[in-house]
Amino acid sequence: MALKPENPIEKAATAWVIATDRGLSTEESETLDRWLAQDVRHRGAFVRAQAIWSEAIGDAPPAAQPPLPRAPWVTRRRILIGGGLAAAAAGTGLILARPPSYETERGETRRLALADGTSALLNTASRMVVRFSAQRRAVELAYGEAWFQVARDPARPFIVDAGGLRIGAVGTAFSVKMVAMAIEVIVTEGVVALAAAGGRSRRVSEGQRAAVSASGEIELGDPGAEALARHLAWREGLVMFDGETLAQAIAEINRYNRRQIVIAPRLRDIRMVGVFRTGDVEGFADAVTRIAAAPMRLDGDRILLGL
Questions:
Q1: Which of 181, 199, 228 is the last residue before a domain boundary?
Q2: What are 30-66's pLDDT values in tens digits?
Q3: How many CB atoms lie within 10 A of CB 296?
Q4: Across the strands, what pairs with 261?
Q5: What is the pTM of this model?
Q6: Are residues 181 and 201 in the same domain?
Q7: Angle between the 26-38 and 40-57 helix axes, to the nearest 10 degrees?
Q8: Angle, CA 86 vertex, CA 45 and CA 120 arms, to 5°
Q9: 165, 194 in Cβ contact below 8 A?
Q10: Same domain flag for 142 and 218
Q11: Containing domain of residue 281, as a range?
Q12: Nearest to 53 by CA among 12, 6, 96, 10
């Protein structure tokens, strides 16, 4: 898509949108404010250029995330948290490109080397969008789960937006998991800062796990090394259970497989202990039949237990 300013005001507005993408200094922000205040046409041109740009890259903010710095007169969508855009201004045109995005299918994991040296591992059925600029490193986790080993760069914080939660780090390692309306953050190295809905914030240190509700409530815990290893076993292609209910265990194993397990209600509260390959849904189902003494039968893409 091309943004083609037709007059000097439109061209100036386009230039300010580009500058906003890379990040404005305090002096530049003040200059932009003065330019916007000079003429109502300036404000209109800026908003139009901003809207075209945002539509071109399909950028939409996570719900209830803390607002980024903005000019005092304008209420707007988030403008391009970072780079990842290929933008080339030539004469009267600006060619826009979408930021890179990465996605996994059910049962797939994907290891990524990001442009800043950060390593990322994307779990099953997940999607993230990367927007890096000279000022910040931003990742939006649209859904699913990811683990990050963040390259240290104090001048450019590493920010992950997940739902209504913002996670900030410099050089650290942590995972983010979005399931239903809840978000889980586990820190395996360093410290991260959480900013949730309603202005709530917490720091999460190495070895800690934070559970964030849809309303922004943050519950912080120290589950211990063994529990953290179970939570992160997916990085090795495993799921580990130690007393979870059968309903919880099946919900987890079903995340990785197209063939889904369905159980009789009477079996839901049976406790499960064991280690399984994420893709071995048949082996998991066979173990359940022995533990619960429940019959198993196939029904298309479903494995029925006790039904």
A1: 228
A2: 788 888 888 878 877 777 776 665 544 444 433 333 3
A3: 17
A4: 303
A5: 0.67
A6: yes
A7: 120
A8: 120
A9: yes
A10: yes
A11: 237-305
A12: 96
